[in-house]
Amino acid sequence: MEFLRRAELDWLFFRRWRLADGWLAPKEASKALEIFHDDLAIAMRRAVAKRLYPNLTFAAAR
């Protein structure tokens, strides 16, 4: 379950987060390419999870 939740969070960041633009609005995200296995998006997911959900250690794992 933890692996699946982490993968779902990764896909959320692959679709919606960009370095230049930050968090994309739904309309922008629908036009953007999904960047599969983007190391920077994964790093952002880890940082956000660590800060917002410190008790969910699996969410901040690689």
Task: Describe the protein's architecture and organization.
The protein has 62 residues and is mostly helical. 56% of the residues lie in helices and 6% in strands. It contains 3 helices and 2 strands, in the order αββαα. The protein has helices at 2-16, 26-31, 39-52; strands at 17-18, 22-23. Strands 1-2 form a two-stranded antiparallel ribbon. A hairpin with a 3-residue loop joins strand 1 and strand 2 (22-23). Helix 1 packs across helix 3 (39-52). The longest helix has 15 residues, at 2-16. The relative contact order is 0.19. The model has no long low-confidence stretch (mean pLDDT 90).
* Element string (H = helix, E = strand): HEEHH
Low-confidence stretches: none
Task: Please tell me how large the radius of gyration is.
Answer: 12 Å
Distance between the termini: 15 Å
Number of strands: 2
Beta-strand percentage? Answer: 5-15%
Overall 3D form: globular
Strand order of the largest sheet: 1-2
* Average predicted local confidence, pLDDT: 90
Helix content: 55-70%
How does the helix and strand content classify structurally?
A: mainly alpha
Task: Please count the helical segments.
Answer: 3
Largest sheet: 2 strands, antiparallel
Which structural traits does this protein have?
2 strands; single chain; two-stranded antiparallel ribbon; 62 residues
In short:
By secondary structure, the protein is mostly helical. The protein has helices at 2-16, 26-31, 39-52; strands spanning 17-18, 22-23.
